[in-house]
């Protein structure tokens, strides 16, 4: 794919990936964010 770009080809091809195996897993975790104690702190920027 990268070599085609160097050769002047602008054709885009989709990636050929194998089918997924197993259940879909979604990970999540809740965080306590003390906004009332620290109203001026950028928690979202620190977490991301």
Automatic annotation (TrEMBL):
Entries under InterPro entries matching the protein: BBP-like (IPR045071), KH_dom_type_1_sf (IPR036612)
GO MF terms held by the record: mRNA binding
Domain of life: Eukaryota
Any one annotated GO CC term: nucleus
GO biological process: regulation of mRNA splicing, via spliceosome
Protein name: QKI isoform 11
Annotated organism of origin: Pongo abelii
